[in-house]
Amino acid sequence: MPRKASGSVVEPKDGRAWAIRFRAYGTRRYLALGTPDEGWTREKAKRKLGHVLADVERGIWKPEAPPPDQASADEPTFHEFASEWFEGIAPELRERTRIDYQWRLSNHLLPYFAKHRLSAITVEEVDRYRREKVRESKAVASARQRQLALPKKDRKRLVRPLSNSSINKTIRMLAAVLEQAVEYGYLDRNPARGRKRLMKEDKPSRTYLQPDQVAALLSAAGKLDAEAREGDTGRRRPLLATLTLAGLRISEALDLRWQDVSLDARRLRIAASKTDAGVREVDLTPALQELLAKYRSRSPHAKPGDLVFPTSAGKRDNPSNVRNRFLDSAAKLANADLRVAGREPMPDVTPHSLRRTFISLLLAAGADVPYVMAQAGHTDPKMTLGLYAQVIASKTDHGAAMDDLIQRLRVAASTDNHSGPDSHDQDRSEAAQSGRLIPVV
Q1: Residue range 284-312, pLDDT digits in tens
Q2: How far apart are CA 111 and CA 440, in angstroms?
Q3: CATH architecture of structural domain 211-414
Q4: What pTM does this model have?
Q5: Which residues contact 343 (CB under 8 A, 6 or more apart)?
Q6: Which CATH architecture has domain 78-197?
Q7: Cα 90 to Cα 83, 85, 104, 278, distances in angstroms
Q8: In the chain, where are the structural domains located?
Q9: Is the distance from CB of 71 to CB of 120 less than 8 angstroms?
């Protein structure tokens, strides 16, 4: 049975015309009427809606073809509306959040919805977008596997497929934009809102390393520093040690400057972070203090205002460079050493795995939860307590393992003789700028 015709009056915003929105023949319709200056009022718009709905019921209503420019003037495209929405919230966002939001819009939402009128974005269209993202992700995953099968020298840059979580983030942003469209009267309801629009997300694996795995990872990083070409500063081990033994986020480590590191006081200060709680002071272990002191003594970028872990040119490094060139290479070498020694290899390791490792080491050493939260910059105890439960459930003798780890690191720091400047190129990208409209990638 066909759905009964229904509709509503759309009040003009920002000088636009009165309009009516209604459902006819199974399709949502939008019809611009006229401006207040042209004599249109709410009562007149209601009468027009009633006439249109009556014609729809009788099956005699036919959509009018609007003048070419009128639709654009009365109802914005998603590109226009999303650009205005982003311009309004951007000043309130932190830099990393702003870049993330623009990535979701420019790389994902706009390529699909840019030319859609707001009223054309239906529940069905949102579901089609989700299915398209899933197809894209599968195609990228297949291409990645083909590249991995090639010799390393023949591989092209490997793009990571979107996870269900990442696809959901773009849909949640679409819902945020369209929520404002509802508030402004362009839509009756938000077609992107609700759990049914989202994909099922697998619970992420919250990995952390055992002390012997930490020792293997940092030892492997030291080997890579020693084997690097002439002129390399050898920042792999100091950087990975700072992520693991001070618990910094990767962005915090790459923003760290020597003026924020007090080696004598065995403390470093995080002056800028993604959260207010992230602005903090972190205590340094004696082993990390010695390692950083040795590293600074040979670094060409050792002035107070210099970055602690910069590129060869003294610029800020890219997190992807750290993950792909430093951490992945060190993890592969460390796992090979662990297997030879008959020990359990590391799971997939990320910079955030090292941060969780820092928390686990503190908890295993007997630090209380409030202290650990302050050191890590946590505001919610759930994350800290969740990791605490994992540490308690582990049968590892953390005390003995940590003693061994610290001893190895102190020996390594005292024998570190690497020298020379780093020569890896910085791999960075800038967001495109295109007037007031958000660029479409």
Answers
A1: 988 899 999 999 998 999 999 999 999 88
A2: 6
A3: Orthogonal Bundle (1.10)
A4: 0.57
A5: 212, 213, 216
A6: Orthogonal Bundle (1.10)
A7: 10, 9, 14, 21
A8: 6-71, 78-197, 211-414
A9: no
